[in-house]
Amino acid sequence: MFDTMTFTKTLGAVCGALLVFLLGKWAAETLYHVGGDHGHEVAAYVIEVEDAEAPAEETAALAPEEYLAAADASAGERLWSQCRACHQLEQGANAVGPYLYGVVGREVAAAEGFNYSGALSEHANVWTPENLFAFLENPQGFAPGTSMSYRGMPSPEDRANLIAFLDQTDE
Description:
mainly alpha, Cytochrome Bc1 Complex, Chain D, domain 2, 2 domains, 0% strand
């Protein structure tokens, strides 16, 4: 059915095809890059554009405090659905992640009954709004080695709104 000779012929055919492919690639590169001046060709036709030299307008990013001051807790409640998969809002109700009741202002790695990875404590002592703002943007970037697999929330407005919602949970 499938003996050693068949396997040897198949392997030889695959290796031979790879060799032909690599030799063809080398020959094509040799033919099309004869001059040795790779990537420094002169454009045959240049299109003039007005204000081509003008710098692009940069949007000034606000400081986290400014986003947090303008935050809307009701908008943050809608964003809570992203966190709900792994976290709970009830005190002491740990899930995949620690409970987030009263997380704003709480010490890092202080949720009772949750086994933390230890990476968070090395980067912050207290979950201030600013620390949460940075953490929610990119958890792995803020605390490399954290076991939180969430990719992050890129929008600063969304992060501020979520923090405002979390801040009101222990009132």
